[in-house]
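Batch manifest line 252
LIGAND: guanosine-5'-diphosphate
JOB: complex structure
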Amino acid sequence: MSGGGLEAKVAEKLIKIAIKQGWFDKLVTVFQKKHKILLLGSTGVGKTNLVQSLTEITPKAIHHMNRTEFIKKQHIKIAKKPFVLIDTPGQAEHKYYRKEGMLDVMKEKISGIINVVSYGYHEYRIGVDKVYRKDGSFRANFLKRHRENEIEAIKKWTPLLGTPELIKWIITVVTKADLWWDYRESILQFYEQGKYYDNLGEAKSIHHVVEYCSVIHKFYGKGRVSGLFDDSDRIRLQVNLLRTLTESIGGD
Ligand SMILES: Nc1nc2c(ncn2[C@@H]2O[C@H](COP(=O)(O)OP(=O)(O)O)[C@@H](O)[C@H]2O)c(=O)[nH]1
Ligand SMILES: [Mg+2]
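JOB STATUS: finished
ARTIFACT:
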C-alpha cells in the first residue's frame, strides 16, 4: 500500500466511526491480545492483501488515537501483530483441508475462521490469455470456474469442524468489491444462500458474510474496476469488517 495520506485518512475515519458506534474500546481490547484466526481461501483470492490492510491500518489508528486527550489516560499498548492470521499459502493450502491439518489448527485454540472469497476473481500466476481473449474481452467462464473452486474448497473443510462449540464464528469475507460492486445483490445472494451456503453444513448458524476491498486494482492489470466504488467505500467496508471481527472475537 502506498500513499500514506490516504491510509492516515482511513485510520482517522476508523476511530471516529468506532467511537461514534461505541465499539472503540472493544477494538482496542481485541488488539491488545493476540488472537489466532485461521485464514482460508484459494490462491489469488486476496488473503495476503487482506491481512496487510487489517494489520497495518488499525494499530496505526489506535496509536494515533493514543496521542489524543481521549485515550491518554488509558495507557494503551498495542501489539504489532494483533491477529495471528494463519495465512495458508498457495500450495500448502490443502494441508489444512486434511483432517490432521485442521485438528492441528484447532489445538491452537483459534478464535474463528475467515474464509476469503472473491466471486471468482482469483488473480494468480496464470497467463492473461486464460482470462482475456485476444480482442480484450473477458472470458466469463473464468469467473464461473473459480466460483466453483470456492465451493469445492469449503466442502473439504466444513465437515472437519466437528461440533459447533469448537469454532465460534466463521466469516466469509467477499473481497475485491471494487471489481463486483455493480452487481453486489447477486454476490450477497451467492454467499448467503444457494450452493455456497448449503455447503457450510453445520457451520451455517455461525456464518456471516462481509463485503470487503483491500485495494482498488484492475483485474490482471487490465479489467475495469467498478466506477461506482471508490476509496470512501473501501474505508467503509474496512471499518465494517473490523467491527464484525471485534464483535465476533468479543470477550475472548
Ligand atoms: N481488485 C482487487 N484486487 C485485489 C484485492 N485484494 C487483492 N487483490 C489482487 O489479487 C491478487 C492476489 O492477491 P493476494 O493477496 O496475493 O492473494 P492470496 O493468494 O490469497 O494471498 C493480487 O494481484 C492483488 O493485487 C482487492 O481488494 N481488489
Ligand atoms: Mg498469499
